[in-house]
What we know:
The chain has 254 residues and is an alpha/beta fold. It has 9 helices and 5 strands; from the N terminus they run H-H-H-H-E-H-E-H-E-H-E-H-E-H.
Amino acid sequence: MSVSEFLANLVIPLNLSVTLLVLAVILFIARWRKTAAVISIGALAWTVFWSLPTTSLWAGGLLEQRYPHAPAATLPTAQAIVVLGGNTANGRQNWFESYDPQNTVLRTDTAARLYAAGRAPLIIVSGAALDGGVSEARMMASALEHNGVPSAAIIQEDHSLTTHQNAVYTAKVLREHQIQRFLLVTSALHMPRAMASFQKQGLAPIAAPSPAQIVVPDEPDFSFWLPDLRALNASRSIVKEYLGLLVYWVRGWV
């Protein structure tokens, strides 16, 4: 595991809280009891903060609403559709509802709808094999073919492991095919970082995100202020996305 991956996992609210509690125990044993108490309270407060649905709705909503989802037929036409690898929250429609594999909206579903609506004649899928097996590009291509997109209309970019690499390697493919106008598909949460990464490459993508997932569920007993395990689980993607934006800014990638 690289240093960046370690830090990304460390800042996940639950992981960070556990780490701080372990540190507090060590300090308590070392007789730094006031410091241990402060750290313990901070760790618990951080966990409670991110377990509140209102926190995810606010923090995640700021990212998801930066580029609002729009029906395929309302988006402009382009020369190509670029789809980035990833599967935010398994494509569930709402992070605060139980996962239903029969009721998901994946990035490839969004791209297939754009293709069916005649928004572009070509789809570029971008993503390497994260585990050394089949690449995300290959899996997305198969999903698109299953949704009625002909294989001849799909180009695979299977070298990128990060959003930055998605932009760098896909930019080469776009320029090789003299494509300037393209729709960019990814999750709504990921779209701000993806757009900034592609713009950094001198490109002008048109945002075409999948539907927002961090929305108030249609449940009569839903509470904004009661701690919820699903909200805590959702926080890992939100925090990682903000950290990603910070790291990309520091490294000059956005």
